[in-house]
Amino acid sequence: MKEEELDNYIHRDLTWLDFNYRVLQEAKDKSLPLLERVKFMAIYSSNLDEFFRVRVANHRNIMRASKKTKKELEFAPENILKEILKKVNRQQEEISNIFETQFIPELEQNGIRVLRRLDLNEEQKVFVEEYFNQYLLPFVQPVLLVEDKIKPFLNNASLYLAIHLRDKANDKVNYAIVKIPSDQLDRFIILPSSEEQFHDLILLDDIVRHCVKWIFPGFDIIDTYSIKLTRDAELYIDDEYSGDLIAKIKHSLNKRQVGPASRLVYDREMDKPFLKYLIKVFDLGEFDLLPEGRYHNNFDFFKFPDFGNKHLTNIAFPPLPYAELEGNDIFEAITANDHLLHVPYQSYEAVVNFFEQAAKDPNVTHIKIVQYRVAKISRIMNALLEAIRLGKHVSAFIEVKARFDEEANLKWGETLENAGVNVYYSIPGIKVHAKMAIVRRIEDSKPNIYAYMSTGNFHEDTAKIYSDVGIFTKDPRITNEVTRLFSFLETQKKPSHDFEHLLVGKFGMKEKLIQLIRNEVKNAKNGHEALIFLKLNSLQDPMMIDELYKASSAGVKIKLIIRGICSLQPGIPGLSENIEAISIVDRFLEHARILIFFNKGKRDIYISSADWMVRNLDHRIETVVPIYDEKIRETLLDLVRIQLSDNVKARLIHYEKNNNYKSDNDDLAIRSQTETYYYMKRLNESKVEEIPEIEED
């Protein structure tokens, strides 16, 4: 990328922090039930931990590279790290303030008191001390620090109490650490309460604080501060083109928890001499430090007790049954017409039923699936095992390079292999990210192929919170090409024919996407209406961004819904003034990818497994699936219109007004996820109301 172009392109990690700030905005949104806001604080914290373990660790490693290597980079890693820490520090101050000034008082107003050690009454002190002796004492692992001599190893992301103490015998200042065993025990301990209107609890951290004097009987405790260290979590496989890839990944997994430090999180109230001492003990640099509040590992707040206060949580949206696909014969239903499934609004039972019926159906001969991420307890995987038991041919392609799911995928692979499933593992140098499965069934003495193509993984748990779309189809235009793609995954032999309907990563997908954009440019220049709609998780690929900028300059109207990374900057006069972009963060994680190209009114509509990132478009097997069924096309258009109308949870992505809530002149509040649920409910009941057409321009 040329230097003058960098001003129009935001580094992926800085724009990711903008996304995580949108999560933090949800924690601040007082229109949400209180415990839902607490949950968003947990999501923010969990996101940030992974970000430091992977992305920040990556920048630190780049900084160690040679000067020649760093000269070839578009962004200096030192500058990116400085910007990252500046943004994160601001956000950390904000989230600490939210916790102390909003969550704690509002919880108390709702009868839940989070007490510190100095707030305890005598009964509660006795309870806390007995709890410490009975449960915590075996885990606290006290270590007295001795500079240059004792450098204890801190477990990744574990909580510790750093203690400033004075030796009673010689008045000498000392430092120590003890572990807060939140990995072994519940973080939130319910206390006895003498006041009926209150539920009292205390964090495990403060129980250790209260009792730490017993661990160091010869010392006076001056002060205590919580700390944690996160470690580099990336898997480094130097040569993925040779050797046993599975063995390399297993070996790297063993190193993940002992990787180099990528961040020391510490209480910002810690005095500077103590912090300097810890920096020296743990051999840390200026980019390794992140101040937070009194408590860390806020992702533990996912498990914060609600004490039965249902008014503090969201109104339930129970998944809607899809009767046609959950009935007696799913294959008959798919033969009649294609079906669109939109989870979590509709039940994932349809997908599970697809595999369970295929396993038991005597006419089914083959089942094939790509496994990228899968639930620990999975009916889908159990259906594959049942199919093998009943004599069917089952094959599974397992991507063992799915970050943080490598170990789980390897275990499932071994289970399937041991049962007789033909298991195929990662292709060296490429990730397989396509979400697809096929079933071969003999009907009237002829084989027919049924396919399920999705934007999300075959994961029964995430299907409850990730918003994804998928289609069941028997259309040979799709199924023939999906079958051909499975053959490639199993043999690694290049398909003999081009893909005419599917767009497939590593087989011309990126080039075809560029053609679709340029076709709109051509139409605009010829005086035709030209429109592009993209709903993606991430938009980062510089080449694709440049194509969108050129399209905007040519007069193509472009509407984007981008959940996370968006390196493109909309709204710049003369460059991206025809591009409008929003991001929606709400109760469900927006995960579906939908692409629409106007094409002189014909509307080319696709669902996709791929985001527009370099890694997806250049280094992965992905699928972009055309939608031919007219009813499904109309439904997808309706769903897109609903999301574009959101004026409650939509934030602007804009070069000047980034993360401002979208506003319009409509007095009617439209929260797209709520509207979508009731739209799908009406659709299920075959009573769909007409949705007003949104102006295309």
UniProtKB/TrEMBL annotation:
InterPro entries xref list:
PP_kinase, PP_kinase_C_1, PP_kinase_middle, PP_kinase_middle_dom_sf, PPK_C_dom2, PPK_N_dom, PPK_N_dom_sf
Q: What is this protein's name?
A: Polyphosphate kinase
Q: What does this protein do?
A: Catalyzes the reversible transfer of the terminal phosphate of ATP to form a long-chain polyphosphate (polyP).
Gene3D superfamilies in alphabetical order? Endonuclease Chain A (3.30.870.10), Polyphosphate kinase middle domain (3.30.1840.10), Polyphosphate kinase N-terminal domain (1.20.58.310)
Single GO BP term: polyphosphate biosynthetic process
In its UniProt entry, the species of origin is given as: Portibacter lacus
- Which cofactor(s) does the record list? Mg(2+)
Any idea of its EC number? 2.7.4.1
